Amino acid sequence: MSPASQRIAVEDDKNIVSNDALITFSKVGFDYELSRILDDVSFSVDRGEFVALVGPSGCGKSTILNLISGVLAPESGHISADGLVHHHERLGNVSYMQQKDLLLPWRNVAENSRLGLELRGISGADSRAEVEKLAESFGLADVLGSMPHELSGGMRQRVALLRAVLPDNPVLLLDEPFGALDAITRRSLQQWLLNVLDTSRKAVVLVTHDVEEAIHLADRILVMSTNPGQIIAEIRVELEPDTERNEISTSPQCVAMKSRILDLLDSQELAQ
Amino acid sequence: MTVFGILRARTMDWLPAVVTTVILIVLWEVLVDVLDVQRWLLPPPSVIFAEIFDSFGFLARQTGITAMEIVVGFAISVMLAVSLASGIVWSRSVERTIYPIIIASQTIPIITLAPLLIIWVGTDITSKVIVIVLFTFFPIVISLVSGLRSVDQEMVDMFRTLGASPWQTFSKLMIPSALPSFFAGLKVAAVVSVIGAVIGEWFGASAGLGWLMKIAGGQFQTARVFAAIVVLSFLAMVLFAAIVALEKWSLRKYPPTANRVIRLGES
Question: Which of B154, B158, B252 would you mutate first to test chain A, the one with the most A CBs within 10 A?
Fold first, then answer.
């Protein structure tokens, strides 16, 4: 098969650092209570690029997001996101959607969505206008006055994502955003997420245990090992321009890539 | 459910308690009469209510004095408790310094401090207010600290990633999270504050319902003692109802699951 006809290229080169990087991780180590969670982790994410982190549970995927967002500080190594190198500076300047929706039960959808703007000191009227501008594309226009407990799980995740992206930071982190949802809702939200992010030119990092989700959404997949967490493979998901994203899961290349990633994950389970 | 059905359900919430109370009062009236109990030993309810009616003006004045002590004491107690609980949650060194002392202070029988307070600050309102504060700040501090601590670390991290300052996290996340348990503590304190006022007045006062009970008791005016008890419990109920109303208003936006009741006896 010639490279030109290959719709999906697979490569194993680790630690590729690009010049247009919005996020850089170089030789990062992190310990928690005497055990090594991350060891010598290096990667970078470009502007407009969507990177997925897959790996067994406990491999430190979520720790990487906590480090990029500034919630945690690294033990060793160097991290930069949007040019911010100190973890205190990154807090508030990196959009981070956690696994749980973490909506405040006493605030309605609009009030939950504008929390990040409110904390930045943006006035109520201005932040409400910002919420209303995006509510339509998030499918939330009709429920802005609803309370979180009145919404379905999928709707709550949309509110959580809207809250994360409203401060409009160039870096967006997603930790298993659809993990708690049923398969059908997850599928439609994945497609919707791609549409929402289509023109945003953000650097996106997605943590997931769902290999198919990673292939469906990401430009590049980083496969991680556990004990300690390291990046063991980098797989580029390259599509020809006319390929629809929703077709890829049935294409032979995708099936091959999926089994390759699963093999990588399985080999670690056996090694333990 | 129809409107009639809802009304009936609402009525059924309080009707059983009212009916039981009425039955007990009637039983008391009848038994005192049938068993020919002396009036000074146990007056029947009719005599107690007659006493309230006859000395209404006098009772009202004493009630006003006791109510004033309760309101001032309760307000000071809430302010003190809120500052202590905030300090405990805010800083570990404040917690280590103050929290053990607060808990140890509750092992002192507060009632034994009342005579000392009379010696130190006299028989005016100050000594009663101090006794009320000593009685009521503890349940408020404990409930508020546990409410403020009930916040998930994930929620706090979410606030941090949105760039919240410690004060913003405290005021916009921790305080709203703590409100339900804060009100639970306030309700306990409301009932206890009435006890504090009466005890304060027993040990040295020249007015108030506690003082009235002590004088009337010494003169075997048992009906008057009962009248004071009825008014005191009425005071406690009013304070309690005011706090419940404030709670309902403050928590009006909270999800109904916060008030869901699990009834193991009715499955």
Answer: B158
